[in-house]
């Protein structure tokens, strides 16, 4: 039986540049580096950056993205910090809770979001998506 999410590995084209982005700009804990990768973390997240020269830095055309939680009080200063650093935005917020959508240096789609699953489900109960069904907890 699964007990949780273990880790996320992102293919990157320049390890030092990506370490700088995730550690210096986003403030993830830097845990280890080696020639072809790095381990960083946040509470509940183990992030591996792995050198992959075949990685295209063009953003994927689909909606797949990785969202990080941010406290409401920290949202605006963080967005201002990211914009001042010149990150590229890839989408406007269209959902419940404050969100900012941006790209990392390798075109991975990221989001910082105020809220959690409980707040999203509450908003969806008030205005459900087409065909939405809700299920009881197990």
TrEMBL record:
InterPro entries per UniProt: Glyas_Bleomycin-R_OHBP_Dase, Glyas_Fos-R_dOase_dom, GlyoxalaseI/FosfomycinResist, VOC_core
EC number of the protein: 2.5.1.18
GO molecular function: glutathione transferase activity
Entry keyword Transferase: yes
A Pfam family the protein falls into: Glyoxalase
Domain named VOC: residues: 4-115
Protein name: Fosfomycin resistance glutathione transferase
């Amino acid at each position: 039986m699964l007990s949780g999410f273990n880790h996320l590995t992102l293919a990157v084209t320049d390890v030092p540049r990506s370490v700088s982005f995730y550690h210096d700009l986003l403030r993830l804990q830097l845990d280890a580096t080696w020639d072809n990768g790095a381990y960083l973390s946040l509470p509940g997240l183990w992030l591996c950056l792995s050198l992959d020269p075949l990685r295209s830095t063009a953003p994927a055309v689909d909606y797949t993205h990785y969202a990080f939680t941010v406290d409401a009080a920290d949202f605006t200063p963080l967005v201002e910090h990211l914009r001042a650093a010149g990150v590229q935005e890839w989408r406007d917020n269209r959902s419940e809770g404050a969100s900012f959508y941006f790209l990392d240096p390798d075109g991975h789609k990221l989001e910082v979001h105020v809220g959690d699953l409980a707040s999203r489900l509450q908003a969806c109960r008030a205005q459900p998506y087409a065909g939405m069904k809700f299920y009881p907890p197990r």
